[in-house]
Amino acid sequence: MSLKDAYVEKLKAQLDEWSADIDVLEARARQVEADLRIKYESQVETLKLKREEAKLKLAEVQESAGDAWQELKKGGDEAWDAIKKSFEEARKKFKE
Which pLDDT score is estimated for 96? Predict the structure, then answer.
């Protein structure tokens, strides 16, 4: 397996984990009172947008040719870390 393939697989696994997190958070949002539900649903929508951003970054890496993926990886890692931080913050908010 090439470095690119391993990197893509790692990103796919993270996306799968985030999708599962979104499902859990959506279920929690449905179980809370109306005023909190609005807050939670807003947070879930934000996470869905972040997940879509991550999918776009993944697609860019997958479609890159030759060593160009390594350049995309540099910027992609920074974006990926920002998205990961958003998910961590959302998990904390849902636990409050």
Answer: 60
